[in-house]
Design goal:
- This protein starts with a strand and ends with a strand.
- The chain is α/β, with parallel strands linked by helices and 381 residues long.
- The longest helix is centred in the last third of the chain and has 13 residues.
- The structure holds magnesium ion.
Length: 381
């Protein structure tokens, strides 16, 4: 069966962490957008309209160089608006099948397309869907209700329709309505949508950790990298000190531009070092007044977000605090727990240790405290 396709790639990817919007990120060396468009082209699409953010129309040419029969058009403010613009750009006949696909589902295959086109013969639309396997709960913080999952499905894309069916359905869809898929638009107009077997591989890349999984599925090579960080701050008058994100009562404090948490600073540098992203001073210049007295939590979280932005994960971290006083041991578990929380890591992947230097050197004389840290991360090669 002849078919055309509209690939929607105009979203802002707000849940996917820092970095370029999803369609433009690399998956095993190719932009995510290219995976879908190539697959639909291989499956026999006569025409593929790629709907991108208006400022990205030129980028599409680079991302899709060498792929047959596609055309980029500027999308709208909402997904529905983008789909409408994509449909308007098609030159297909009204009776022809059209597949609407989210660019963030890169693993679509010719087999998926054929299954949908076959099901479309006897329905007004056909969608891949997976039965819900997990128990469903409704509530906020506390469970209010267990929701029966019988007959519930997770809808994926591509979704197949006849062009005229979809145009007519969108024509009567309320302007202020925000459908989350196209089948909902056809359903509302009274159309019959066939459910076909979905595929876990049609997952939508949404959260930072999805990209690490996708990279493995894409056969992308991943490498393990290690970074090292050191920091020291001078003791001065005070009543408490911040170390590894925990405030400890003490007869002195560490002097520094931010909260002087040498543990967090060393660890932040270790993570930045593992991904070759410079050091903490480059990202948060001490000359910038906005970091005066700042909680160092944000430095660490920023470094961790740079790891996820490149499709990486932090494997483990290990911090050593070097001082004669205060005693670290009583606070070690709280420090581990805080670092684990900030990095969203299991506790056993976070280590905090302490040592003295037996009275030798600046730490031994009580002039200052030093922290050293190691971080191991895994990223796409
Ligand atoms: Mg420091």
């Amino acid at each position: 069966m002849n078919f055309s396709a509209v690939v929607v790639a105009a979203g802002s990817s707000t849940r996917a962490g820092p970095g370029a919007p999803k369609p433009w990120r690399s998956l095993n060396g190719r932009p995510i957008l290219r995976w879908s468009v190539e697959a639909l082209s291989r499956a026999g699409a006569g025409e593929i309209i790629v709907v991108v953010a208006p400022e990205r129309v030129a980028d599409a040419g680079e991302a899709l160089a060498g792929v047959a029969s596609w055309k980029a058009v500027a999308g709208g403010a909402t997904r529905a608006e983008s789909v409408r613009k994509g449909l308007a750009a098609l030159s297909a006949d009204d009776g022809e099948a059209v597949l609407i696909h989210d660019a963030a589902r890169p693993f679509v295959t010719s087999a998926h397309v054929q299954t949908l086109l076959t099901a479309l013969v006897k329905a007004d639309g056909a969608i891949p869907a997976l039965p819900v396997a997990d128990t469903l709960k409704r509530g906020v913080g506390i469970v209010a209700k267990t929701v029966p999952r019988d007959g519930l499905w997770r809808a994926q894309t591509p979704q197949a329709f006849r062009l005229r069916t979809l145009l007519d359905a969108y024509a009567v869809w309320p302007v202020d309505g925000e459908p989350t898929d196209d089948a909902a638009v056809v359903e509302r107009a009274g159309g019959k949508i066939a459910l076909v077997a979905g595929d876990p591989l049609l997952m939508k890349l949404t959260y930072p950790e999805d990209f690490a999984m996708a990279e493995r599925l894409a056969g992308g090579q991943r490498i393990v990298r290690t970074g090292f960080g050191v920091d020291a701050h001078r003791w001065g008058p005070g009543e408490a000190v911040w170390l590894c994100g925990v405030e400890i009562g003490h007869d002195q404090t560490l002097i520094g531009h931010s909260d002087a948490d040498a543990g967090l600073h060393a660890l932040t540098d270790a993570i930045l070092g593992a991904i070759g992203e410079g050091d903490i001073g480059e990202h948060f210049p001490p000359s910038d007044p906005q970091w005066r007295g700042a909680s160092s939590d944000r430095f660490l979280v920023h470094a961790a977000s740079l790891v996820t932005a490149r499709g990486g994960v932090i494997l483990n971290v290990d911090v050593t605090l070097i001082c004669e006083r205060p005693r670290i041991r009583p606070h070690r578990d709280a420090m581990r727990a805080r670092l684990a929380e900030l990095l969203t890591l299991p506790l056993d992947r976070v280590s905090v240790k302490a040592t003295t230097t037996e009275g030798m050197g600046f730490t031994g004389r009580g002039e200052g405290l030093m922290a050293q840290a190691v971080a191991t991360v895994e990223t796409p090669a």
